[in-house]
Amino acid sequence: MSKSIKLAILGLGTVGTGVINLINDNLDELKRRSGRDILITEVGTRRQRDDIDPTIIQSSDLMATAASDNVDIVIEVIGGTTLAKDVIMHAIKNGKHVVTANKALLAEHGNEIFAFAEEHNVHVAYEAAVAGGIPIIKVMREALAANRIDWLAGIINGTGNFIMTEMRDKGRPFADVLTEAQELGYAEADPTFDVEGIDAAHKLALLASIAFGIPLQFDKVYCEGITGITLQDVNYAEELGYRIKHLGFAVRRDGQGDGSGDTSAAGIELRVHPTLIPQNALLANVNGVKNAVLVNSHPLGQTLYCGDGAGAGATASAVMADVMDLVRVLGSIDSNNESTNGHHVPHLAFIPEQLSDTPILRAEQMITGYYLRVHAHDNPGVLADITRILSDAGINIDAILQKPAHKLGQVPVIILTLPVIESQMNLAIEKIEKLDTITDKVVRIRLDELA
Amino acid sequence: MSKSIKLAILGLGTVGTGVINLINDNLDELKRRSGRDILITEVGTRRQRDDIDPTIIQSSDLMATAASDNVDIVIEVIGGTTLAKDVIMHAIKNGKHVVTANKALLAEHGNEIFAFAEEHNVHVAYEAAVAGGIPIIKVMREALAANRIDWLAGIINGTGNFIMTEMRDKGRPFADVLTEAQELGYAEADPTFDVEGIDAAHKLALLASIAFGIPLQFDKVYCEGITGITLQDVNYAEELGYRIKHLGFAVRRDGQGDGSGDTSAAGIELRVHPTLIPQNALLANVNGVKNAVLVNSHPLGQTLYCGDGAGAGATASAVMADVMDLVRVLGSIDSNNESTNGHHVPHLAFIPEQLSDTPILRAEQMITGYYLRVHAHDNPGVLADITRILSDAGINIDAILQKPAHKLGQVPVIILTLPVIESQMNLAIEKIEKLDTITDKVVRIRLDELA
């Protein structure tokens, strides 16, 4: 067997421990597939652990471990965007390949990190950063490499999907399910990143870059969480044949105008928000903490990838797939091997000089269908007023559901629309809310047929 | 831009034309991702085509094209196992990398072809051979490279899935749907390969080898088609919460004995057959001509991959993904680059000297749950007789459905069992069929909870 591969693991939390367990469990499989021995030589951890193989050097000096001569690949699973960034940059500078699961760090500083890695002729692999164990980075960078990607839609936050699933299946309100998710360890004590969509936005920024060949632009992702979703809307959606999921969308728009008024602009939509999708779509049936990504590309059409988006086993699987890639595929583990330069898989799927400056569209330029819930006095003219306003704005209605008045003569009217430019919808809603017969703010949730 | 990549396409049917169209449509994407120009320099075709770019050399001498100095990669999309084999071996001998969509050829002669390719230091890529556009070969060989694969279950024949979907959705009998599938071009004039499960068995042989690191053993795949499935069974299955799909299974069994009597044997099950699976499983909701593969591995757990399993666009996408891999990933497009030897992705996922001789289990050693339909005279003792026989054989019943007598006093009894060794089930059915009260052969369909 040829040269051993020496790994350093920085951070021994759930994921770091998962990687150690995976190597213990599957060492035979790893060797049979790679023809190499895979060794953890060092771990970086604040506290010494006595349950670790004593031949592995434990160090609290993470910078030293990241640069150690005894290490080929540095696995960063500390998390956060400060120390993690420092150790990764230090590892790169010292010619180490890096594997990381750190979506926040890459979404925010990936352009800088990848450029630094290319300068130093090493690779920063990040399969575990998006959708956990689902190999969506490899699929999009390599398997779909001959396709033009038109759009993707993903359930890329397991906590959010767990909450949406429980609300629908058991009729439990948001706050109640969130508490359970925290008890089960699915959600952090501070659930902001999950329920406000920030975690999903980090992942979406990465997916969009490798889909379209654009620099990482996390700050331009439109981001809406699930805190405002009520059981009432979950149930109306079901009644109309739809299901509400929290999805990230990256969509390429060719545009049919300059984006002013009611003309659509060319560019890319990056958005994370609750979305009504057809009940019978596979994506609508991905439940609990599972993640899934649906990619629509030419000429392949739609493909779906589904699995565990988090957890020690799934994340370790993705981390070690990256290690195996560095060993077998990227072919660059021998640092003196210059021959792979210029033909490897680029960090963001497209070669750096070919990244495009296609604009990211502003929220008001985006195009989606809508679910509207309008509360009005039970007045015979109200539906005519609303539909006239929508029609005047060029908004096509796909379905209407008017429920019987339930209190004080108020009736909820549910309207599903065909896709419309958001600025047009904003104007229409402004007008609807000014009607005398309207008693509340209009509730709006985006809708996508995934067609 | 560095050296161009020169392709030869052998065969200009649906898939060959699809590859040409893909390159025309997406050349800019291909260049942006690879940093290379991608050129078709030659095509091998029996008849000259006048709708092809005139700078492309057309030749009816396929052997000459496969060996041309003007070609880096040979794409074989002729089909069949005779001429296709000759041209592939000739291309390999002349140092060309090969991309093929030919499942029958690889399932039957892959061991020989891959060994020959390794001898000549070239790669034979075959993403398009299994599940069309779904990148299941890449996923299993690379993305799951750190996992121990326990089992996989796949809808890997689109024609069969179309027929099963139509039977269920529209209550149409098998023969009727088959005729439509032929009219739509989903099924061949001679549908044997699709409806008898042979095409699925070819693909399963490939999947099993890369899952477990075993040589290709197509001849040992247990193979059952869908020609015997009746609407009656489709409907009873639905009533009990299951759906019948035609699936390929590759299952690793650790065994708890030597396989004699009621002890289970260690080895691998390779089987293709109609199967009842839970209605709410995602796999049960993969409809029409779509394909999907569910993989259960440690530590990742279950992941599902779904998309178009056939058609010009999907197949061309997979073929060109292989080309992009040869350019970017396998890193061996420069034939004088010796440095990649020993660290590339092996043809069957595991390095050749590590392929294992784990036995393939015989049909009677396999373990599955069962759906049984028993027709009996409407006699009060019959259910007791049947359940006693099953119980004596150690077979656990999971559900029973007894329908009212519908003609001549016969009642169909539907029984779902927990997993049982097939030899035990054979014995039990033999006994049941000997009961005086039983009027017909017992209908048996396998059942899997996909748990």
Could you characterize what this model shows?
Two copies of one chain form a homodimer. Chain A has about 450 residues and is α/β, with parallel strands linked by helices. The first copy, chain A, has three domains: about 180 residues, Rossmann fold (3-Layer(aba) Sandwich), CATH 3.40.50.720; about 180 residues, Dihydrodipicolinate Reductase, domain 2 (2-Layer Sandwich); about 80 residues, ACT domain (Alpha-Beta Plaits). Helices cover about 35% and strands about 25% of the residues of chain A. Chain A has 13 helices and 16 strands. In chain A, strands 7, 8, 9, 10, 11, 12, 13, 14, 15 and 16 form a ten-stranded mixed β-sheet that branches. A six-stranded parallel β-sheet of chain A has the order 3-2-1-4-5-6, with helices on both faces. In chain A, strand 1, helix 1 and strand 2 form a beta-alpha-beta unit. The longest helix of chain A has 21 residues. The radius of gyration of chain A is 24 Å and the shape is elongated. The N and C termini of chain A lie far apart (about 50 Å). The relative contact order of chain A is 0.13. About 5% of the residues of chain A have low confidence. Strand 12 of chain A pairs antiparallel with strand 12 of chain B.
